[in-house]
Amino acid sequence: MPEVVDFPTRRPGAPFPPPEYAGYRERPGLVRSRLPTGAVVWLVTRHEDVRAVLTDPRVSSNPAHEGFPSLLGSTGGVPSPDTMPGWFVALDPPDHGRFRKTLISEFSVRRIREMRPAIEQVVRDRVDAMLAAGDTADLVADFALPVPSLVISSLLGVPRVDRDFFEAKTRVLVSTAATDQDREAATKELLRYLNRLISIKRRRPGEDLISRLLAAGTMSAAELSGVAMLLLIAGHETTANNIALGVLTLLLNPEWIGRDGVVEELLRLHSVADLVALRVAVEDLEIGGQRIAAGEGIVPLVAAANHDERAFGCPHRFDPDRAARHHVAFGYGVHQCLGQNLVRGEMDLAYQVLFDRIPKLELAGPVAELPFKHDGVLFGLHSLPVRW
Predict the structure, then answer these.
(1) What is the predicted pLDDT for the residue at 74?
(2) Average pLDDT estimate for 230-259
């Protein structure tokens, strides 16, 4: 049996991705590792092997299976379909396909193109608010977090008068400072609110996603509220982290502001959802020459794959001109992120409007003092002090 290594956690002062990833890629087979919870899993670090895991039908994303890994106990656990109907990322085909088929047109390139004016207005409103407040801001709290929250609120059909409530509860869900009890209370309040909103939309439909999903008739009310929660959570902090890290990278590399290829390279470089694609084997299989037994947990490391020298030359360099565009920042296979076009659109407009409206934007302190997220499932920044 291979040596069991400690899970390579992120550490203050250490680079991201963790430097251990590079060494793991050079080992034969896969790496056996002990999670902070005590569970032993297989780590997958090579680009080719990560894609193989994410497309193998003998590998499941359903946390109800024995051996499914959890990184942070109850706080970092993945809801099961039983506890959260509609949380379809935890379903395997063919059940997963029922939800994805209904939703996929809502996040197509064409649909997101139609949404761009509304997204741009959200971004402009947040920049206006920052400018009105003075000549300094925390770009995370004042811009990166509110933008995706307000965009999703608009998409779901949340009335403007309720969006402050909606954003406040969403912030609790994605805060590493919040307790399990805080998050549980916020989840219950949001689900209550969504259930009321669904009832209202059933009687008075509008031009919004919930109304269209009700009209489609492919899911129950409980499933629809679960889908809405999934879109809210999955599309909020990941997008916020991408926006904030992207602004930091562009401030450090201003020659790339406004140029093509920036968003795609930022997605690859930062790989904020490094630890999200948790899996478990439901049959015996082999990946990268390593036998994995049914019931063993698997952690495909997205950032390790996106920094694999075999797939991306000089992977630690920010190079939007690179030809390689086969990153797995949004996953791969049937569970590839449904909202990836929306994330790209939000990032693109965030940088476009922000740097156009505030051309003198700069960091308000040294990079070495920035509080990176070393303690959560997603990578990002707790805050980003800026001035102009």
Answers:
(1) 47
(2) 93
Architecture of domain 4-387: Orthogonal Bundle (1.10)
- pTM score of the predicted model: 0.93
Q: From start to end of the chain, where are the E strands?
A: 4-6, 31-34, 40-44, 59-60, 136-138, 279-281, 285-287, 290-292, 297-300, 362-363, 385-387
Omega prior to 17 cis, within 30 of 0? yes
Contact 272, 372 (CB under 8 A): no
| Burial of residue 322 (number of CB atoms within 10 Å: 0-12, 13-18, 19+) | middle
Q: Residue 120 to residues 151, 257, 263: CA-CA distances in angstroms?
A: 10, 17, 16
Q: Which of 246, 275, 278 is CA-nearest to residue 259?
A: 246
- What residue segments make up the domains of the chain, in order of their start? 4-387
Cα dihedral: 349, 148, 97, 265 (round 10): 50
Q: Is the pLDDT of residue 307 over 90?
A: yes
- Would you list the DSSP string of 82-121? TTSTT-GGGPPTTHHHHHHHHHGGGGSHHHHHHHHHHHHH
Partnered with residue 298 across adjacent β-strands are: 42, 279
Which segments within 259-368 are labelled E, that is strand? 279-281, 285-287, 290-292, 297-300, 362-363
